[in-house]
Amino acid sequence: MKRISLVLLVVFFIETTVNSQDYKFGKVSKAELEEKYYPSDSSASAAYLYRYRKTAIDYFPGEGFRMITEIHNRIKIYKKKGVGLATETISYYTPKSDDNEEITSLKAYTFNLEEGKIVKVKIDKNDTFDEKKNDFYSIKKVPFSEVKPGSVLDIKYKLISPYSKIIDDLEYQFQIPVKQLNYQVLIPSFYKFNKINKKYFLNIFFGLKTLQK
Q1: What's the rounded Cα separation, in Å, for the pair 187 and 101?
Q2: Beta-bridge partners for 4
Q3: What domain range is 91 assigned to?
Q4: CB count, 10 Å around CB of 144?
Q5: 71: which of 16, 90, 134, 159 lies 20 to 30 Å off by Cα?
Q6: pLDDT tens for residues 143-187?
Q7: Does any domain span residue 101?
Q8: Quick check: is 99 in a domain?
Q9: 3-class DSSP state for residue 30?
Q10: Is 127 helix (H, G, I), strand (E, B) or coil?
């Protein structure tokens, strides 16, 4: 799939921590694995060490505009109760009579600390599965392996969508704490956008700019 990069504008950015840390996918530190509880809430059974999302709108010759969303989530499991979060659920649009969204570049790992050494377990794509939720949406489930208290779960993927005029899933409150949240939305400079806050979500609507005489 060949694309033409456009001049883009960053329009949305959030970080929940002042002293932000760089989280490289597939690289987990001993400190992350050794952490016994979430510093701000010792009762938390799990926490997002990092949630990253970058959504960009690009033009693909012969296909038109596409919305490309890159996701990277890292979860720390502190207690046995948190092991229930060891399945990533990805919702994507699959209508019967229109173009489908597509999930690509999926990679996931479980990290454990065993006898002082970091053990990395790759999640096989054959272990993932898709379910049809309704006439419009499907769900991809990614179950992590060998998860226990102390584990760190790391996942990244891309969601490619032919629908590039609305982002309606910028969630910023979750059932578990978040150490660092990084959202970026990049749009062509000739687009205009409107933001609408809806409780714990942010909707962004796009359209072409109208030039005034």
Answers
A1: 19
A2: 59
A3: 8-19+31-208
A4: 23
A5: 134
A6: 999 999 999 999 999 999 988 666 666 677 788 999 998 888 887
A7: yes
A8: yes
A9: helix
A10: helix
